[in-house]
Amino acid sequence: MSMNDTISDLLTRIRNGQMSNKETVSIPFSKMKEAVCKVMLDEGYINGITIDEGDYKNLIVDLKYYDGKPVIDYIKRVSRPGLRIYKSYDDIPLVKNGLGICIVSTSQGLMTGKMAKEKKCGGEIICYIS
């Protein structure tokens, strides 16, 4: 099966896993997906990530719940292969008036929109999470 947008697949698997109250979701491994998950882990949206080295390398994401409800309420892919969205550091948007995060791919790696503004580096807007 050929897949063009692997980040959308990652976000969809996380969204679907939380809607069905799964403990973990398994995702085919890539360094970009691992970096997105590390940002989500640092911001407290997931419990953990592990790499399963079986026949194929998989990324196992431990989903996080609070009072039986998923921590991630809203997750949306912004920049996609057919339409890339780039912003300078002063144009990076706030997500839900600062209650959510924006993951940005910069020349210094993946980081939240807030960190990108502090470091004064813009880049490609990957997704919004709240």
Characteristics:
five-stranded antiparallel β-sheet; alpha+beta; 130 residues
Quick rundown:
The protein has 130 residues and is α+β, with helices and mostly antiparallel strands. The protein is built from three helices and ten strands. The mean pLDDT is 96.
Architecture overview:
With 130 residues, this protein is α+β, with helices and mostly antiparallel strands. The mean pLDDT is 96. It is 25% helix and 35% strand. A hairpin with a 2-residue loop joins strand 4 and strand 5. It has 3 helices and 10 strands. The protein is globular, with a radius of gyration of 15 Å.
List the helices and strands and how they pair.
Layout (H helix, E strand, L loop, with lengths): L5 H14 L4 E5 L2 H12 L3 E8 L3 E7 L1 E2 L2 E2 L4 E3 L8 E2 L13 E6 L2 E4 H7 L3 E7 L1
Antiparallel strand pairs: 1-3, 2-3, 4-5, 6-10, 7-10, 8-9, 8-10
